[in-house]
Amino acid sequence: MVTIRLDFYATLLAICLVLLVGGLITKNWKFLRKYDIPIPVTGGLIFAFVFFISQVVFGVKITFEESIKDPFMLMFFTSVGLSADFASLKKGGKLLVLFGISVCLFLFVQNIVGIGVMSAMGENPLLGLLAGSITLSGGHGTGAAWGNVFSADPYNFSIAIEVAMASATYGLIAGGLLGGPIAGRLITKYNLKPTELASENSTSDYAFAEPEKQRLITTESFLTSMGLFAFSMFVGTTIAALTKGSAITMPTFVWCLFTGILVRNSLSYFNIHQVFDREVGVIGNVSLSMFLAMAIMTLNLVELTKLAVPLVVLLAIQTVVIILWVRYVTFSICGKDYDAACLVAGHCGFGMGATPTAVANLQAVTYHFGPSNIAFIIVPIMGGFFVDIANALTITLFLKLPLFG
User: Fold this and answer.
1) Which of 64, 66, 213, 379 could form a disulfide with 11 if both were Cys (CB 3.0 to 4.6 A apart)?
2) Where are the transmembrane segments (predicted)?
3) DSSP notation for 330-381
């Protein structure tokens, strides 16, 4: 096996190629446009498959400069915070609560299905948790953390980390592929229309709702916005480091998100500076695309081919379960309107993959059918913060069952 290691610059070039190829294919393939498949997903899967063939057929493994990925992720979540004022957050209100109920109940459903299927097949029920809410709603980070726990005493499940990474990888792909088509189908079937229209001059419009809207940006304004990003990310990463291992430990991106919210609203409250939403939207859109392209093109499809049959069966069942849940529960609870359909796309994104995938799904859907400002407020907050807390509590509760004693 020959390993080719790409440095920072080669990795950055590969990311750009992923997005350019994905955009070109999406532009010329009606199926992808019709079902709102995000460009990073399209390009990323193509490159991941190429790298898979390279490794399996030609014995050439390509590795990347992984350190480039996290800064893009943190920058994206910082942009979410800098784009959300308290007035907009209050608009979540009742819909935020209703969506939260559907999301939290689904955590239980994922684990019940996982444990039930694995127990029925005579397998370790820990497989059910690992291919349940731990990875499908928690993503790679949560999967790695719990994989370490299950690998040690008292569980001693030696392949826990491998199972977690494979499940999270599958979820990332499925979450990106399902959200747009399901939401688009609901919007078309019920002839749903946006409840509000975005305005070019409105500062309350969510920055990610129209990713290709014309934006007037100057060097001075861009440097100011980048300064806000740098400050928020510095404070967020510092807090994450200081609270690591404490009772208030949270993912670094959550601290960056809420630091961004605090910075934006403090500047506004004291009438110091008005955040340039459209400019923040450009930076956020670019960061999100770069992060997703990197995450998806580096998927280890070789590990997916090694999945045991029970895990493949369970992941297939979990896919059907989330389709039914978002279609008949999330959509119904949230009001069966256009915003509810957009929330369905978001729920698919972080209910099977990750919050950036959820936002990418929203971008694709709203660019096609029209804006949903409330969905862009609710989904990042729910997927980036509340679901992590609820998931940790849910997993802890399940581990107290006699089955795991």
Assistant:
1) 64
2) 6-25, 37-60, 96-121, 159-183, 222-242, 248-270, 282-302, 308-328, 374-399
3) IHHHTTSSHHHHHHHHHHHHHHHT-HHHHHHHHHHHHHHH---HHHHHHHHH
Coil, strand, or helix at residue 60? strand
- The residues pairing with 5 across neighbouring beta strands, listed in sequence order, are 63
C-alpha 362/C-alpha 338 separation (Å) is 12
Say which DSSP state 62 is in.
Answer: E
| Cα gap 163→300, rounded to integer Å | 12
What are the tens digits of pLDDT across the range 334-378?
999 999 999 999 999 999 978 888 988 998 899 889 988 889 889
b/e code 250-273 from CB counts within 10 Å (16+ = b): bbbbbbbbbbbbebbbeebeeeee
Over its C-alpha atoms, the chain yields an Rg (Å, rounded) of 21
Q: Residue ranges of the domains in the chain? A: 2-404
Tokens of 156: 């001693």
Find all residues with CB under 8 Å of 162, minimum gap 6, and list them.
147, 303
The string of DSSP letters for 151-174 reads HSTTT--TTHHHHHHHHHHHHHHH
To the nearest 10°, report the CA torsion of 355, 360, 363, 365: -100
Q: What is the pLDDT of residues 38-93, one digit of tens each?
A: 788 889 889 988 988 998 888 898 999 988 888 998 898 888 788 776 665 566 77
Q: Given this structure, which CATH class describes domain 2-404?
A: mainly alpha
Nearest to 370 by CA among 229, 184, 104: 184
